[in-house]
Amino acid sequence: MFGKKAPNAALADRVRAIVERQAIPARPPQEKARPDRDSVFKQATIILDSGARLSVAIKDISAGGARIEFFQNVALEGEFTISEPMTRLRRRARVAWRVQGAAGLVFLD
């Protein structure tokens, strides 16, 4: 009544097959490495082509783009200019990804 159950042969065979499999080789390094990012917390301004301005916070930045967080709920579309005077940043950019209250930018110039 309280004895061990006989092992399930099919399950044992599946486990044995998994253990005997060759390890999957690691992915080769990407040809294009992602640029190093610097963590920052700088207030910046997004200038739309219409002239409208939005205040944002730059959370990290690299040579190819930046991660920003919004102070208000906005939907950025198309190209725009991002400016931050302390770091002398003034670049054309577009949104690469978007989540609630934050976005990733790709610099275009």
Strand content: 35-45%
CATH superfamily of the domain at 38-107: predicted glycosyltransferase like domains
Number of strands: 6
Largest sheet: 6 strands, antiparallel, barrel
Q: What name does the CATH topology of the domain at 38-107 carry?
A: Thrombin, subunit H
- Which series of helices and strands comes N to C? HEEEEEE
Shape: elongated
CATH architecture call of the domain at 38-107: Beta Barrel
SSE layout:
Blueprint lengths: L8 H12 L17 E10 L5 E9 L3 E6 L8 E6 L4 E11 L2 E6 L2
Antiparallel strand pairs: 1-2, 1-4, 2-3, 3-6, 4-5, 5-6
What would you say this structure looks like, in words?
- The relative contact order is 0.16.
- 11% of the residues lie in helices and 44% in strands.
- Strand 2 (53-61) and strand 3 form a beta hairpin.
- The longest helix has 12 residues, at 9-20.
- The chain has one helix and six strands, in the order H-E-E-E-E-E-E.
- The protein has one helix at 9-20, and strands spanning 38-47, 53-61, 65-70, 79-84, 89-99, 102-107.
- The chain is mainly beta.
- It has a domain at 38-107: predicted glycosyltransferase like domains (Thrombin, subunit H, Beta Barrel), CATH 2.40.10.220.
Descriptive labels:
109 residues, mainly beta, Thrombin, subunit H, six-stranded antiparallel barrel
